[in-house]
Write a structure and sequence with these properties.
Elements lengths: L7 H12 L3 H14 L4 E7 L5 E6 L6 H6 L26 H6 L3 E7 L6 E7 L2 E8 L4 E7 L6 H4 L5 H18 L4 E6 L2 E6 L6 H12 L1 E8 L2 E8 L4 E2 L5 E5 L2 E3 L2 H10 L9 E2 L1 E6 L5 E2 L10 E2 L2 H19 L7 H6 L6 H9 L35 E6 L3 E6 L2 E6 H14 L6 E11 L2 H9 L1 H6 L3 E6 L2 E8 L7 H15 L5 H15 L10 H12 L14 E5 H7 L4
Parallel strand pairs: 1-7, 12-15
Antiparallel strand pairs: 1-2, 2-6, 3-4, 3-6, 4-5, 7-8, 9-10, 10-15, 11-14, 12-13, 16-17, 18-19, 19-20, 20-24, 21-23, 22-23
Helix pairs in contact: 2-6, 8-9, 12-16, 12-17, 15-16
Length: 573
């Protein structure tokens, strides 16, 4: 086997493969350079979804002739000294982005240090045909990238449709818009200005994420031991089918990090349905020396010096916030449902025509009017709700209540489930009630395996059983809260929870899932006739129960129809 040195061109193309995956990667790297240059306004332009042309222009610190010649060389950078590799305060620092881009495209950079100094341009084609010439422009830098991957045509085959690539460019662009409110950002698709976000706009987050997000989230702020957390998280009933609605930033750098994912998932455990995701935008600021941003070529993954500390901080603060606001309901779901009929066709048509395909929340059918502000803790009742007085029970399932200008509909079983669950969580040692006759329950081998792994936990929660064979158990006692219940049905539900969430990352989450099954069987059922007094009693208990907006499986427990909702439905705009 013969070892040989690779050419610099191949080295650069390999580096480009790590850093430049698609047009959006170019947009990301160039915006980062502009921010590091102190730009106050950044203009992005793409043609053919960035495949044919990408331009990023800024008004930051430009480069002189000598720096312009060096900037396209590998590992040439102004952002890193010999001593601070693990104390990075800038976005780019490796000196790889520009030479990597140049190795797979036709690159032109024009820059001037200030209005009084001369401007220069440098052009490259696949790291060849290097040319330097005088130019004309004001202070700042413009980088133009043409014919991306012309030097590596095989890479073009792996790009997606123009729609998908443009959406990816927009997504990258908006992450910076969210992270840097003090910078003006503009985005052009061809000659059409697609986005314009003025600096320090009080409505910027709503502009990017839409009124759906704005109307259904509340602010989170916390500070402890050098860690600062701020951002917005959703009310539990506003949840999504994918995790694309979650944005995490560390020192204003967008990251994909398991500590954030764990904290969000654990904080919302039992508050949203399975396989649904909470919407959130979270910013974590911390000492730069405590986080390693050099863990990934594209710098989207980071390593924390103390991961457990970060994880606990995030989880504890998110749980505190949810305890205060867990009774808040989604403000869009009622209108979505109530205005989806034919009477509201022209109302929905006008909204849908204005939806943006790059809006991550545009799968919501209808927003309600945007009030252009985010609710703060001081603007709410901190989780306190008033459900009024019961006036009717519909179908022995739904309680109809009236409160001021609101009509409130309560799913009596869902509400009772949450009430029971929160009581159980406050007292994990449940009393058992021995069955008059032990009941034999058949199980599958996989069900038996999962049950046996959690035997000690089930005993603590009041479930006693004996294993007879690999597929049979004899249930001897159940939680006393039940009274009479179907033992086989209860055991199947508990085991289903253990199988689905048995690999939950925390014991608390696993306990919650078992308690959820217990609560379901030990609560007021749908189909039970209630008196007005009993209905009002349930309403008062709801008002004093945390997280009452959803049952223990994450489904809604009540909905409010306001006068505004009714006016929209009856077209009284």
């Amino acid at each position: 086997m013969i070892i040989k040195l690779l050419s610099q061109n191949i080295i650069n193309q390999i580096a480009a493969g790590e850093v430049i995956e698609r047009p959006a990667s170019v947009v990301k790297e160039l915006i980062e350079n502009a921010i590091d240059a102190g730009a106050r306004e950044i203009v992005v332009k793409v043609i053919d979804a960035g495949k044919s042309f990408i331009s990023v222009s800024d008004d930051g610190d430009g480069m002189d002739k000598e720096s312009l010649e060096l900037c396209v060389l590998s590992h040439a950078t102004s952002k890193l000294s010999e001593e601070n590799l693990f104390d990075i305060h800038t976005f780019g620092f490796r000196g790889e982005a520009l030479p990597s881009i140049a190795s797979v495209s036709r690159l032109l950079i024009t820059s001037a240090m200030d209005s009084s100094s001369e401007a220069w341009s440098v052009s490259l084609e696949g790291v060849s045909n290097f040319g330097l010439s005088p130019a004309s422009r004001h202070r700042g830098t413009t980088v133009e990238v043409r014919d991306l991957f012309f030097a590596t045509p095989a890479r073009l085959k792996f790009l997606k449709s123009n729609t998908a690539e443009l959406d990816s460019c927009c997504g990258v662009f908006h992450r910076f818009v969210l992270a840097f409110p003090n910078i003006t950002f503009r985005f052009f698709d061809g000659n059409r200005e697609k986005f314009f976000h003025k600096e320090n706009s009080p409505t910027r987050i709503g502009e990017v994420l839409g009124s759906h997000f704005e109307k259904n989230t509340f602010e989170v702020k916390a500070e402890k031991d050098g860690l600062k957390l701020h951002g917005f998280i959703c009310v539990p009933t506003f949840n999504k089918a994918t995790a694309n609605c979650q944005y995490f930033f560390v020192n204003n750098r967008f990251v994909r990090d398991k500590n954030f994912v764990y904290a969000i998932r654990s904080a919302y455990a039992g508050l949203i349905p399975p396989r649904r995701y909470a919407a959130a935008i979270l910013f974590l600021n911390m000492p730069h020396s405590e986080v390693d941003v050099n863990a990934h070529p594209a710098k989207v993954e980071v390593r924390f010096r103390e991961s457990e500390k970060i994880r606990f901080f995030l989880l504890s603060e998110l749980k505190k916030a949810l305890l205060s606001f867990g009774s808040m309901r989604s403000t869009t779901e009622t209108v979505d449902t109530f205005t989806s009929g034919k009477n509201s066709h022209h109302f929905s048509e006008s909204i849908l025509q204005n939806r943006d395909p790059c809006d991550p929340f545009s799968d919501e059918r209808l927003p309600i009017p945007n009030q252009n502000y985010f609710p703060k803790a001081s603007d709410t009742m901190e989780g306190k709700i008033s459900l009024g007085n019961a006036i009717y029970q519909m179908g022995n399932t739904y309680i109809i209540a009236e409160n001021d200008d609101n009509l409130i509909i309560v799913d009596q079983h869902a509400a009772a489930e949450r009430i029971t669950l929160e009581k159980l969580k406050n007292n994990l040692s449940l009393d058992s009630q021995t069955l008059l006759l032990p009941e034999v329950c058949p199980l599958t081998e996989s069900q038996m395996e999962r049950l046996e792994k959690n035997r000690d936990l089930l005993l603590k929660l009041g479930v006693y059983y004996e294993k007879l064979t690999d597929t049979l158990i004899s249930v001897n006692a159940l939680p006393a809260i039940f009274g009479d219940c179907n033992t086989q049905s209860f055991m199947n539900d508990v085991i289903d929870e253990l199988i689905t969430f048995g690999n939950a990352p925390s014991l608390d989450e696993k306990i919650h899932r078992i308690l959820a099954a217990i609560s379901c069987h030990g609560s007021l059922r749908a189909g039970k006739k209630l008196t007005i007094q009993e209905m009002n009693s349930l309403l008062r208990q709801m008002e004093n129960t945390i997280n009452i907006a959803q049952c223990c499986h994450g489904r809604p427990s009540y909905v409010t129809l306001s006068l505004q909702n009714l006016n929209i439905f009856f077209e009284r705009y």
